[in-house]
Write a structure and sequence with these properties.
Strand 2 and strand 3 form a beta hairpin. The protein has 2 domains: 130 residues, Immunoglobulin-like, CATH 2.60.40; 271 residues, Neutral Protease, domain 2 (Orthogonal Bundle), CATH 1.10.390. The strands form 6 sheets. It has an 8-stranded mixed β-sheet with strand order 5-8-3-2-11-14-13-19, with helices on one face. It has a 5-stranded mixed β-sheet with strand order 16-17-20-22-21. The longest helix is centred in the last third of the chain and has 22 residues. The protein is elongated. The chain is α+β, with helices and mostly antiparallel strands and 485 residues long. It binds zinc ion.
């Protein structure tokens, strides 16, 4: 419970929150629909408040003076009047310090709306916004710089906000000017051409018309991210790339598409608050593999088989990712740490990536893409946060109807032949039925109609509203209309 309402049998049926951001501050207009089975004279509510200041509170009768902010909580009593079942509370508040982090001019903002588990919640933020991640169960979209989310219960959302950035098709790029515009155009045009691989392989697609990418110089990337990766997806919708990766178009594209896969996955695995990333990384590595194949880039085998090729007067050898003996050992020892694997542990990093990719290749090889799509689409509907890695793994494997044991066999030769088979597995990109991970009824979800509530309440007594009240309502209605454009 995030709210406390009085009387006890009253409840909050719906919350609409509109956030207007102006650089360092934001104004939130929050409408709270109150309902009581039995008609009552007033409602009293207590809710968490993280804003800096209340600008105004009103209900269908007029301004409310009777409120207080104490210990991070807002206490409000609606205007007392004739008994009624419904009331609409409007809160206007100022928020500062929404910024969590910033990379170049791409700012990552954080916002929460408290709500009871069964309260319908609509959230809009007016940008320019370029990406987001929200609590599980919320469906969202980013279109034309506006973020829209709908779901039930408390909302926590993180999103990318910026007035800067260079637009290349569906990408908005933040960089410090050290890469030529022509080069960036070439890379992101090509990324656009390869984009179709993502929704068709994963079976899902975020409902957004833009993807944010920040390119950090290597020293900045190493100090702020880590010194082993080439790119990373930051929760909230931002892809960070290491500048040196962008030098070669061919080496940049598999990395960009790998990180974009994480952006897609973030929507499907919003409920995964554990550290387990084997499925997320396995899918991203698989995308990277398919992109490389499409571009004719040589990729290392998994666990077995060196690759040799000649270029000019030199013979090059590409060693496999992951050591076969480690995999054999893993199964022989009946290990299961991959169920909670993440890339942080440097000793298990290479093995973990190779194992995760082997899992995804094995899964698709045996089950086809459709079964993966079915699982990914059902992941989108998960509403319960999971904090424990093994619990996440259990749930994910249940949906996938498999176990986390690619190429496990009693005999070494059988393992070898399974791995060899998967190393030569290069499927065609399927033509999938893609589920767009957004609010499906975007056009149908209207903002709350204040006149409906007003009409019901004034029936009882308040037929002659004063001019001030009328003006307020007209203004509120206009503001609501503007949001729908
Ligand atoms: Zn990754």
């Amino acid at each position: 419970m995030f709210f406390f309402t009085l009387p006890a049998y009253s409840k909050i049926t719906r919350i609409d929150c509109n956030l207007n951001i102006k650089d360092q501050e934001a104004i939130a207009s929050i409408s709270i629909n109150l309902y009581s089975e039995t008609p009552i004279n007033y409602f009293s509510i207590e809710m968490p408040f993280q804003g800096n200041r209340i600008i105004k509170i009103s209900d269908s009768i007029g301004n409310i003076k009777n409120y207080e902010v104490r210990d991070g909580k807002l206490f409000v009593k609606t205007n007392s009047s004739a008994k009624r079942k419904e009331e609409l509370l409007k809160i206007e508040a100022q928020y500062k310090e929404l910024e969590k982090e910033a990379f170049l001019q791409a700012r990552i903002l954080d916002f929460s709306v408290a709500a009871e588990d069964n309260t319908e919640l609509y959230f809009r933020a007016h940008g320019p916004i370029h990406g987001f991640d929200a609590s599980p169960g919320f469906k969202g979209s980013v279109k034309g710089g506006e973020l829209f989310l709908v779901g039930y219960g408390p909302l926590h959302v993180r999103f990318i906000y910026s007035h800067s950035g260079q637009r290349f098709g569906r990408f908005i790029v933040f960089e410090d000017g050290s890469i030529s515009n022509a080069h960036l155009t070439e890379i992101f045009n090509e990324a656009e051409n390869l984009y179709f691989i993502l929704p068709n392989v994963l079976g899902i697609e975020p409902d957004q018309d833009i993807y944010a990418i920040a390119i950090l110089c290597d020293s900045n990337y190493n100090s702020r991210v880590n010194n082993y990766s080439r790119g990373i997806y930051v929760n909230g919708g931002l892809i960070l790339l290491k500048e040196s990766v962008l030098r070669e178009k061919k080496s940049a594209l598999p990395v960009i598409l790998h990180e974009l896969a994480h952006c897609f996955n973030a929507k499907a695995f919003a409920w995964n608050s554990s550290k387990a990333v084997w499925l997320d990384e396995g899918l991203a590595k698989f995308i990277e593999y398919l992109v490389s194949k499409n571009l004719g880039i040589k990729v290392p085998n998994l666990f077995l088989g060196e690759k040799k090729y000649i270029e000019g007067r030199y013979v090059y050898t590409i060693f496999p990712s992951g050591d076969f003996n480690d995999l054999y050992q893993y199964y022989n020892d009946e290990s299961s740490y991959m169920a909670e694997w993440n890339a942080e542990n440097s000793e298990k990093r290479t093995f973990g990536y190779a194992f995760s990719e082997l899992f995804v290749r094995d899964y698709i090889f045996r089950n086809g893409f459709e079964k993966l799509h079915y699982a990914m689409q059902s992941f989108l509907n998960e509403k319960e946060n999971i904090y424990d890695s093994r619990e996440f793994t259990k749930k994910a494997l249940e949906k996938l109807e498999t176990s986390l044991e690619p190429c496990k066999a009693t005999k070494k030769e059988m393992m070898v032949s399974c791995i060899n088979e998967l190393n030569s597995f290069a499927p065609e990109i399927p033509k999938a039925k893609i589920v767009v991970a957004g609010p499906k009824q975007l056009q149908k979800t209207d903002d709350f109609d204040i006149f409906v509530v007003r009409a019901k309440n004034i029936k009882a007594k308040f037929r002659d509203l004063n001019d001030k009240m009328q003006k307020f309502l007209e203004f509120a209605f206009k503001a609501t209309e503007a949001h729908l454009q």
